[in-house]
Amino acid sequence: MLIDLKIKNYALIEKLEMNPSPVLNIITGETGAGKSIMLGAIGLLLGNRADTKLLFNQEEKCVIEGVFDISSYNLQDLFSKEDLDFDNQCILRREISPSGKSRAFVNDTPVTLDVIRKIGENLMDIHSQHDTLQLGDTSYQLNILDIYAGNTASMGNTTFDIYAGNLSHLRKYNESYRKYKKLESDYKKLTDQLAQAQKEHDYHAFLLNELEEAGLQENEQEELEEELKQLENAEDIKVKLTQAVQSLTESEFNITSALKDTAHVIGQLAAFSNKYEELRSRTESCMIELNDIAAELEDAERNTEADPERTLEVQERLNLIYTLQRKHQVQSNAELLGIQRDLEEKVGSVLNLDTAIANTEKAMKEAEKEVLETAAILSERRRASFDTFEQELYTLVADLGMPNARIVIQHNEVAPTATGTDEINILFSANKGAQPQTLIKAASGGEFSRLMLSIKYMLADKTALPTIVFDEIDTGISGEVAVKVGKMMKQMAQKHQIIAISHLPQIAAQGDAHYFVYKHDTEDRTISRVKKLNDQERVNEIAHMIAGANPSDNAYQSAKELLSL
């Protein structure tokens, strides 16, 4: 419930604070005094978009703050989900700077508008003239019927479970429906992929077969290019190798003979010093290395032969590799092998997709069966509540001045949607002998208001919203009906905190707390103010509501009588 409301620098409000009663609060005042402005401020507190044009002083920030007692609302999970500290008192605050920057806070922790909106939806239900028009919407009517039937406890965008620890019937259906739609979407994606894959399959298979037949090896290109260079220059290489061998072993002044003589001479000096022995050893090592080199050169020379057939074979192999690289726009065999692996995956994916599609289709059919089963239970509960809903609503509207009213719930079965397999339309007629029609066609503004109030009254014990705000729900009614509306609000307020903006003295007299909104003219501008009326001030205000600016003694007496009721 709302404990304290502060509004600063908003529209015509310079500074305002009120501490609502936990039961029925009435707000009255002249048209344009600022009652709807207060609702606009509360809307900002609950997450509505801000507009800097509404700043009272364009050089100061606007601050709207509400303190709520949430000790009995079971919102711990919601706070935990949003990573917020929970306390029995919750403070919501909005700040709008002159530059247009908007900030939101929950218990002094900065949050997004989405978060403050989620929490705000659990704290207040603002019923305006727009909501009265919503009553003509069939989806809104279905939502109302679900609350009444105990399938869920929701108003607006908020959904609560009635039975602690158990999923509500509607939520259970919603979960099965979401699961089914997810599988249906997955199935469509897979079938679309299969259709696309089948179109490309033959081409991919051709490319893969071409690469597989090529039998590519990762380092093959480099090895073949080196071999081709040797084959194409075999005669020149053979001549050079022969010259090298002769220089080492066969010429008149060959290196190996010279090293052999040198080692012999140094060996004769070894007896004179160890260092000569070391030099002799090193010389012999050089000689051994050169002999190895000469032997390898001889092997290379013997193995180097011009081979036209092998040259042609290597050239053809390299041409194949180069052609494939150009075709696939790559520079190496490693890249070609990567493309081959990708093609293997794509060609194989057609078979994998068949399996995935079969599995998904099976799961989708099972989910569809579950959807239809839960929808049937939900539909049965809805239809079981039709008669009692019609009768209870008729009893209430008859008591509010429509004794000849007829209310019929029209039901059609439809394909599964997010709300089930039911489509309903509340049909209404206010006059005897008139055929019930849709609310949009059959109900006037005043009838709409009385219908909405009656429905809210019926749902008061079933919805988890603690604070209900009525913005001029008394439109189009007067006299004894207005007295009954006021009493109905007072009864609702025994279980829900109610804040009602009204122009009717009959309703104003029912309030446990009465706030008066008025304009105050300063030297340079007009501002809105609000005051809580004492007993005598309430008599005066209600008398003015009855008779205008100059109420008679009779008006004052009528005001006292209304208050005594």
TrEMBL record:
The keyword Secreted does not apply. Residues 5-521 form the RecF/RecN/SMC N-terminal domain. GO terms for molecular function: ATP binding. One of its GO terms (cellular component) is bacterial nucleoid. Belongs to the RecN family. It comes from the Bacteria. Pfam families: SMC_N. Signal peptide: none annotated. This is DNA repair protein RecN. Keywords: ATP-binding, Coiled coil, DNA damage, DNA repair, Nucleotide-binding.
